[in-house]
Amino acid sequence: MSRSPGASSPDELETRIAELRASVRRAMASGDRQKARELRAELRRTESAWDDAVLGGGSGDPEEGRGLLPVREQVHQALTLLGAPAAPKLIGSVYAAFFPGAIPGSRLTSLRRDEERSFRTAPYARPYYLCAALTADLLAPARGLLTVSTWPLEQRIVGPLSPRADFLSSAVRLAEHAGRGAPDPGVQRLLWRFASNIPGAVTGTVGTVDPAALAEAARAELDVHRDPDRRRRESAAARARERLDDAERLFGSRLRALRAAGRRPATNGETDR
Amino acid sequence: MTDTAPDLDRLRGGAPPRNHDARTIAALTSNPGCARRGVMDAAGVDKDAVARELGFPAPFGQSQFAITRGNAFEAQVKADGCAELLTLLRERLGLDVPEVAYDDLEVVAGNEGRELRHSRTRRLVARALENGEGTLFDHPLLRLEIAGHPAYLEPDVIAFQLAGRLHVIEVKSFAVVDGQAEPEQVAAAARQSAVYVLALRRLVAELGHDPARVSHDVFLVCPENFSNRPTATPLDVRPQLAVLERQLARLTRIDDILAELPGDLTFDLGESLAASVRAVDARYAPECMSGCEMALFCRDEARACGATGALGRSVRDDLGGVDTVGTALGLADGSLHPSDDLAETADQLRAAARLRAEALQGVA
Amino acid sequence: MSALSSLARLQAVAAGIAQPLATVRHCHVSDAPLVLVPLKLAGEAAAPLAVMLGSDPGDPSLLVVPQPRNRDLRFAFAASLAKLVLNHIETSRGAVEELPPGKEGEERIRYGDAPQLLVPNRGGVAFLRMMGRSTRFRSTEGPYAVEPAVPVLGRWLTWFADRHDHPGSSLMGAVTELLRLHWATGQSSLEDGNLAALTGWIDPPAGLDGPAAAARAEDPVVWPPAGPTTDPTFDNEVLAPAIAGYDRSGGDSRAGERLHAAIAGQLTPTWDLMWRAVGLLRALPEGASVPRRWERDRDAFTYYHQTFGEAYPQARRDPPVRAARRLHDLERAQDAYDAQRAFDDPLVMAEHRLSGQAFGGTVTECDPARLDETGKRPKLRPLLRVATRDPVRLDAGATVCSADRPALKGRIVELDDDGGVVLELTGGMGRKLVPEAGVVPEVGDRVCFTSLTEGSFGAAKFPDREDTPWTHGGPPGEYVPTDEDAEEDWS
User: Which of B319, B348, B359 sits opposite C350 (nearest CB)?
Assistant: First the structure.
């Protein structure tokens, strides 16, 4: 709570804060982002000076609870349970429902990049990598999906039918996993998210799910999707084995996609089904 | 069409062209007579930058709360392979969708190039029309010819194929409460969707199919009541389509406007910008404020020359189309003599002036 | 809009200040209205952020939801708001008037006063309507229990918003609308929606004219918007960091304090404007029929207050018969309100004169004692000739009445080409064969007659609820709130 020399009175600080707020807003309104950034930094400094002067020393940010496991272990566990490419949000929900603790969301965004860097520096130094799902047509990284490097390539490739097929197969796996014990409320909530979006999966009252009924309904719809989806994935996987190097197979091929697309725009898996 | 391209490039002053979106096109049709807007939009000029440079920044800032809410709702509806969206189509709208494919057209192998995305959109739509492949096409990139010039359209929608027919699905984060949403927001959504339907129809026609295979019923997906739960409402956009097609056909051809302009005109940011902008006629109306980045500049200009249109279209109509405040007041107080075609308007104005004076005199 | 009000806008442009559209005040203004300035979180249907409210300009209360996405905080806010609003409602009843018993001998009373809610604009009304909708079904017990005052507030807010739809009602007013009813500015109606710009035109601060004051008012940094939507740069640069700070602090008081101060800064200018607007309206003399309309408002309030305990919350949607009756009532109210304003105010009557449904002028000939003796008994039928310059669009045979004394009725006999109207007076002159003194205008008097009447729109009969025709779905089930209503998400 020490005042810096030349510290201003709370009144002066308040006036200054009001001025700075107005200037930041004006700068933003006129599109001058650079100036807005500078002003914003000064505003934050002035605000914290006001806090110190008026309200006393800060209490500090409460420590964020950290899980016992590293994030990549947590993600690996959730993905292993799901058995299919999944978005970070789903991974987080699955972990929260079935495992102790939670995955800090902010850490998930940079995960794939970190893993790729690690692989490129020392290939196969780790037992597994968390890597991309590949699009079936261009073998490029699919947006926002994570997979595990040890999965067969077919499992890590996504075609047009895969999002639904994977959603259904994950539902089956989670239901079976939950069915082994008495599902707690967190698991019920997660299963409800699946059941409410699968025809015939809701049998009881709103919000409660019978895992066996969920698995059965999911399997029924999965039957429609499984074979065409698998064919598409297998043919793309064969192509990937043939054309991609190790790193590309894990993290997808951006360069090749661009090159190929530039030369022959209407090519690659679009028609082989 | 190809001849105008170099002119349009020059107008932009070398800057890359801006994509159209349905909002800009829907707004364009709300004021088809505005040459300024027509030219700037056709050339893909960054009007926001121009307005800022002129000292009239567009008041279109968006709150991060609204943006976050919109993005979160859209992500939620599309999560897990569009699981919630699919449930809406199946249960709420009663559609029989046995097999569900999802194609992300927003990015092609990490590349967001417009040509690449558009050609992929074309390819997948062609395939869908020919053999019914594909169900949900997220963020297709379409093209639409605006005033004789093709514009890319960045629709924030999903195209949905079922039994050989295509539907436009638009996800919006305004709430539908007890089956009703704010009429202005629904109207804006309908206008935008109509642009997408039209662009999709043109594409279907180009591919040699019947444009009617794109349905005029679009599906609006919004949060229900005060929850985050989505609900779907079919919206018939035939009226909006009719207006749109008519307005697009009526749009003055850009070539014709360009032919009237000085050969060296450019909207490059710099000293002569204001003069360049003024060289192209605008037709300002208060409605411009909701859609056009140039609105504040044009309003200032319209006010400075005493245009009655700045007071609103209804005022201008009430004044029988008299363009300036000075003329109207002159006719009202009798200091100006009307031409024959304004005689009736002048009578009306004089009577109005007399009646106002009489009623106010009684008070004073 | 009409040529008359459009002309007023042009005159405002030329004069640089707003011009009157009315010579009297057409709305009731309470001695102590409850002024509410609500703010909501951008992008949400009904997530309240704050409201500044009170009936003393010097002593506003400020309620804030420090994290608008937190439903518990939202309901706590609703409970605090309920306390203040319900207290205002209960203390604004005045003394009870006993009325003569009704047709079936039932007791009838009317509260001597009623609460008046004022919000800045239509958006404010819409927001309170949404607040009402989102709170009136809440249950006070069970898993999602809220404080008992919350659903009560919801029902009252719904009722006030409903009365706002009623033409001529003053129970809930949007101040921009009230001002626009009385003044024309030199800007478009879109810009009139900005309370600060509108007041700037009507009553510019010293040293500024209307356009300059309005221009200043359009800078959201100088004049925060009057809500319920906040300015995006405020959201992004001030509000979002303050809310994030509150979240991080785990409910720490100084973070809450900072948020409070930031929001107060957005609301105070509008709060002051609201009272300035109230002052502008009060300064106008009250129109003659305003007390009568306020009496109808008090009747409506008395009825709702008296039956509150027996009724359910208003249904999500009106059943067919009620919807039809409501529409009819609104049309009747609109018709009566339009006519009353014209009779109260020569400037409003001027609109009707311009459209030809009324005419004013000087009496040039008069036969006050004329009798019509064609029937069995002679009837008093004075004749008048009025010279007018108005564009009369009434036909011979049309029934008219005097704008100054609507009881004086007449019939147009003849219209000549050079602005003469011959009029036969038919009623309102007393029962004898000689008119009462001073009733029939004399030569040289200025008169105004109009075809407008106040009660032309008769009441229609509607079937009872049980007799709802099958075309309208047959009799609807009685509305009973369900658990589902009560547990509706408010996320």
Answer: B359
Of A21, A51, A54, the CB nearest to C237: A21
DSSP A113-144: HHHHHHHHHSTT-SS--EEEEEETTT-PEEEE
Quick one: closest CA in A to B101, which residue?
A161
Q: Residue B16's pLDDT is what? A: 79
Tokens of B267: 């909207």
> Which is higher by pLDDT, A93 or C249?
A93
Q: Is residue A122 part of a domain?
A: yes
Residues A168 and A89 in one domain: yes
Q: What angle do CA A141, B86, A95 make, to 5 degrees?
A: 55
In this structure, are A48 and A77 located in the same domain?
no
Cite the residue boundaries of each domain of chain C with CATH code 2.40.30.20: 358-450
Domain spans, chain B = 1-282, 314-363
Does A120 share its domain with A151?
yes
In this model, does residue A269 exceed pLDDT 50? no
- Chain A CB contacts of B59 under 8 Å are 29
Answer whether residue A66 shows pLDDT above 50.
no
Q: Which of the two residues, A106 and C392, has the higher pLDDT score?
A: C392
Q: How confident is the prediction for chain A on average, in pLDDT?
A: 82
Chain A residues inside the 8 Å CB shell of C221: 22, 25-26, 29
Residue A157 above 90 pLDDT?
yes
Which residues of C sit within 8 Å Cβ distance of A? 220-221, 231, 233-234, 236-238, 241, 248-250, 252-254, 257-258, 265
Same domain, A217 and A188: yes
- Residues from chain B that touch C230, judged by Cβ atoms under 8 A, are 63
C6 CB neighbours in chain B (<8 A) are 311, 314-315, 318-319
Residue B303 has φ and ψ, to the nearest 5°, of -65, -40
Determine the residue type at B248: L
Half-sphere exposure of B314 (CA within 13 A, CB side): 11
Q: For the purposes of burial, counting CB atoms within 10 Å of the CB of B304, is it exposed (0-12), middle (13-18) or buried (19 or more)?
A: exposed
pLDDT bin (cut points 50, 70, 90) of residue B5 is low
Let me know whether A244 and A158 are in one domain. yes
Q: With cut-offs at 50, 70 and 90, classify the pLDDT of residue A75.
A: very high
Q: What is the mean pLDDT of residues A161-170?
A: 95
A257 near C CB under 8 A:
no
CA angle C118–C123–C127, rounded 5-degree value: 85
| ipTM value greater than 0.85 | yes
Which of A220-224, C34-38, C253-257, C469-473 has the highest mean predicted lDDT (pLDDT)?
Answer: C34-38
Q: For the beta carbon of residue C200, count every other beta carbon within 10 angstroms.
A: 28
Query: Is the per-residue pLDDT at A74 higher than 80?
Result: yes
> Total domain count for chain A?
2
Tell whether B79 is within 8 A of chain A (Cβ): yes
Round to whole Å and give the CA distance between C412 and B261: 61
Describe chain C by its helix, strand, coil percentages, rounded to 5: 40, 15, 40
- Chain B interface, mutation test: which of C188, C447, C490, most B Cβ atoms within 10 Å? C188
Chain A partners (3+ C-beta pairs within 8 A): B, C
Q: Does B329 touch chain A (CB under 8 A)?
A: no
Please tell me whether residues A39 and A136 are part of one structural domain: no
Q: Looking at the structure, do residues A46 and A80 belong to the same domain, yes or no?
A: no
Binary contact (C254, A24; C-beta < 8 A): no
What is the CATH class of C358-450?
mainly beta
Domain-located, residue A50: yes
pLDDT surpasses 90 at C216: yes
Check whether C24 has a pLDDT greater than 90: yes
Flag whether A120 is in a domain. yes
A61 falls within a domain: no
Whether A77 and A30 share a structural domain = no
CB contact under 8 A, B109 and A254: yes
Residue A197's domain comprises 71-270
Listed range (C55-64, C449-458, C475-484) with the worst mean pLDDT: C475-484
Q: What is the pLDDT of residue A26?
A: 86
Nearest-CA distance from B324 to chain A in Å?
A: 31
Place of tokens 């963020």: B139
